[in-house]
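Sequence only, no structure available. Ideas?
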Amino acid sequence: MSGLQSRPGERFSIRIPASATNGSYSVTEILSSPGDSTPVHLHEKEDEHILVVEGTARVLYGDKAFDATTGTVVSLARGIPHAWGNPTDTRLRLVITATPGGVEEALRSIATSGDQLNQVALADKYAVRLIGPPLLASRNASQ
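Reply:
I predicted one. Tokens follow.
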């Protein structure tokens, strides 16, 4: 997958933008390197459905943490803190459907803004609230 880089260790490709579905949903493919993870966050506007296409994802959902293997679908409801990461030594490929769509544009903004990224404005625009550090931050610090 070519795509854009949203952070070191993560590349993405917007497969179906919300603009193609009248805002109903969007589909984004993500390729995550070993040790990569999202910060703990929540979405105020959309639910996310994650299909693990390849690899194993460590998922934090509310107060539960678990591993989701290839073929697993994990649904994350809006308003509940969550994060995911790649705890393995092989790549992780996810397909994420957001309902309604639109939040995928936050990734595009991150990838294309360079040093001009205003994370507070971005979080406000897309109603994504940062709750805590990256899920696998302790793993990366120990390597």
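Residues 104-112 form the longest helix (9 residues).
Hope that gets you unstuck.
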